[in-house]
Specification:
Rossmann fold; seven-stranded mixed β-sheet; alpha/beta; DNA Methylase, Chain A, domain 2; about 350 residues; 7 strands; 11 helices
């Protein structure tokens, strides 16, 4: 049986690409950010629709899903910043987006539903409403409240909440593919890329570009050890804010990654040396945009901007950090494909 899906909050296509890799036909990606159109459409065969989820109609969703006997999937990852451990604020609009996703599930009643987000979402009322609605609609709901991405071949410390819901029966949780002794590392993922200096770029890849460093930060990264902290620096390099009591609780900022360990969680600011442990393991610079994307398990040739467009670190950092890791999308897709296969064989 063919599964045809719609990716809501699709961004640049990380979830779409992963689901497609698992054999799911994603007919359309929907996101309010028009700037995501180029990377979504150039890397994925489905169409991109710039739509507000809050006003998107079920009729349009059903048109995209079709009525030719295929199995319908509604997938999505609402913006997670309000629920993230990195968040300092709670954006009420972003909270409402999950309610809008719930509304579309109620109105469309697809065969399959999947939702991915940060674990902190599970503690909120908006999440409880979502799960309650799935049960009311007679879905079998599988909740994975803290999926460890390291156990599925993703080379970064990242935990995610994953919901898998089906009209046909319970969806089996994806089985881990990796153990601690073979977690994917930074070296395995980006170690082969061409060395570049701070502020430099590769001739062959416009996305393999790193942010400039001030003279002070260049001195700081030269004094940084892989896996170490700013506490390793000479006193003259330590920032005043870190010398104060309140600053001592942030040891990982201005840190270097370690070659033979996974990376920290890739955020929207992973291109900035001072924003976390985003220093390159051996080169005196922050990781490049391409390296951040590859640690998010995007293919090395995934195109994020038109070749004629200038690289905007803020925009591309947002694209990459907000994306669902491609490998996670693939793992979710494989679980759904396996589930549908079992159901199909059972009904023969």
């Amino acid at each position: 049986m063919i599964i045809r899906g719609i990716d809501l909050f699709c961004g640049v296509g990380g979830l779409t690409y992963g689901l497609r890799s698992a054999g799911i036909n994603i007919a359309a990606g929907v996101d309010i950010d028009e700037e995501c159109r180029f990377p979504y459409e150039v890397n994925n065969p489905g169409d991109f629709y710039s739509e507000d989820i809050e006003t998107l109609s079920a009729k349009q969703i059903q048109k995209w899903l079709g009525n030719d006997g295929t199995i319908g999937l509604l997938a999505g990852c609402a913006p997670c910043q309000p629920f993230s451990t990195y968040s300092r604020t709670s954006k009420s609009k972003d909270w409402r987006l999950l309610d809008s996703f719930t509304r579309l599930v109620r109105e469309c009643k697809p065969d399959l539903v999947t939702m991915e987000n940060v674990p902190g979402l599970a503690k909120t009322r908006v999440y409880s409403r979502f799960v309650e609605a799935l049960h009311q609609l007679k879905y079998h709901v599988t909740e994975i409240e803290s999926l460890n991405c390291l156990q599925y071949g993703i080379p970064q410390k990242r935990s995610r909440l994953v919901v898998l819901a089906s009209k046909f029966g319970p969806v089996e949780c994806p089985r881990p593919t990796h153990k601690s002794e073979n977690f994917r590392t930074v070296r395995e993922t980006i170690g082969h890329l061409t060395p570049i200096p701070a502020g430099g770029r590769s001739r062959n890849d416009p996305l393999h570009v790193s942010a400039n460093l001030s003279d002070l930060n260049l001195s700081r990264i030269k004094a940084s050890k892989p896996g170490g902290t700013w506490r390793d620096w000479p006193k003259a390099l330590v920032a005043d804010c870190h010398s104060r009591k309140s600053g001592k609780t942030y040891p990982s900022v201005y840190g270097r990654m370690r070659w033979d360990k996974p990376s920290p969680t890739i955020t929207t600011q992973a291109h900035g040396y001072g924003n976390g442990r985003f220093g390159h393991p051996s080169q005196n610079r922050a990781i490049s945009l391409r390296e951040a994307a590859m640690l998010q398990t995007f293919p090395e040739d995934y195109a994020f901007v038109d070749p004629d467009e200038n690289v905007n670190f803020t925009k591309l950092g947002r694209f990459i950090g907000n994306a669902v890791p491609v490998r996670l999308g693939e793992i979710i897709g494989q679980a759904l494909v396996k589930h549908v296969g079992i159901v199909t064989r059972r009904n023969r």
